[in-house]
Amino acid sequence: MHASRTCGTRTPPASEGLSRRRAGRPFAAILDKTRITSAALEIIGRKGYDGLTMAGLAKQLEVAPSALYNHVTAKRDVLQLAEDHLISMVDVSLFGRAPWEEAARIWAWSYRDVFAQHTSLIPVIAVLPVTNAPQTLEMYETVTRAFAAAGFPQNLIVSSIVAFESFIFGSAYDVTAPDDIFEAGSTVDSTPHFRAALKAGRVNERPADTAFELGLEALIAALARSLC
Amino acid sequence: MHASRTCGTRTPPASEGLSRRRAGRPFAAILDKTRITSAALEIIGRKGYDGLTMAGLAKQLEVAPSALYNHVTAKRDVLQLAEDHLISMVDVSLFGRAPWEEAARIWAWSYRDVFAQHTSLIPVIAVLPVTNAPQTLEMYETVTRAFAAAGFPQNLIVSSIVAFESFIFGSAYDVTAPDDIFEAGSTVDSTPHFRAALKAGRVNERPADTAFELGLEALIAALARSLC
């Protein structure tokens, strides 16, 4: 199934050509979707997705914009390449080889971890059509097949996946929240219950993980019950 | 509890002063946090939060930047006003007056609906400290008190709220997703299971609501069981 894929491979190499330029004889690294994806992720990581422009991307790749347009026709295509590459890093390896709950657990944690590193892409991926995003479609196919085999009602499989993803995207943001996000400042006296709960919650060393595990296990348990 | 609050009221009036300007005698509407909040939300809705600048906000309010700085010291303050105002629109009215499951259900649906109208603020609210955001703190206090009264383990109350919020924020994006988000494009043949599940799911008229209900009820059911 993988052989025909030409983009979104798991580990795009760094843009070697940029550092291998030889004096007097410019070395033109072959421009392909892997290089475009790497450069786009680099720019998005630095400037957010609003900071990604076709002109900026061409400059980063040291090519003329026209060369870039031979591979991607618009920023939307570039975002889809970036999104599809990130999805290729999500672990779906246990689906079909372990009970679906266990596979879904590994999938969801790795999905959250990948997007916690790229939260600026969440507003994009959450609403970007998957058309021509082969790794993303493959992930959906793998998860769907496993959910169907487990006995999920057919008409609720896509909704279940979306519910997982919504929780995963929101939780990815939470990973990046500052430690003091719940500090109450000057209005502290009016929130005695909240303050007490915050204090009690300090036993959880990694609060984002505690909240994620709680919600994820809730989703898995409820879906497991719906199969009975 | 509400009397001392001076910002983030539930319904900020439109900036009347701007249309009541009288010829030859400029009418200066009183600049307060309510007007600043309205103007900020208007700009954010139009340009996203990256498009909000202190200079642009002063211009929108027809005041000198120095006048603006008398009320807010930085863009971060403005975002907090906007965030706190949105939170004031979330329905917490049933907490303490109905079973916690029912109150949480109304709270979560209204919370999702408010942020589905303002998804560009999600990356902000998800990581913005609540210091000096009185409506936000009041919401947390109300929910915490109800969860504690229901018998939630004290050390897991904040994590439970965060799990709900993560799901709510991710689901707010899903409300804005285009209908064709899962269209497979040219690679359609490699995803037979996913295509079949998509087709079966078309019985759900409002897919974002189906997914939200599924996940929300899962969270509520699992948390309810943890109380037994």
Describe the protein's architecture and organization.
Two copies of one chain form a homodimer. Chain A is mainly α and 228 residues long. Chain A has two domains: 16-85, Arc Repressor Mutant, subunit A (Orthogonal Bundle), CATH 1.10.10; 91-226, Tetracycline Repressor, domain 2 (Orthogonal Bundle), CATH 1.10.357. Chain A contains ten helices and no strands. In chain A, helix 1 crosses helix 2, helix 4 (75-88) packs across helix 7 (134-150) and helix 5 packs across helix 8 (157-175). Chain A is flat, with a radius of gyration of 21 Å. Mean pLDDT of chain A is 84; it is low at 1-26. Chains A and B meet through helix 7, helix 8, helix 9 and helix 10 of A and helix 7, helix 8, helix 9 and helix 10 of B.
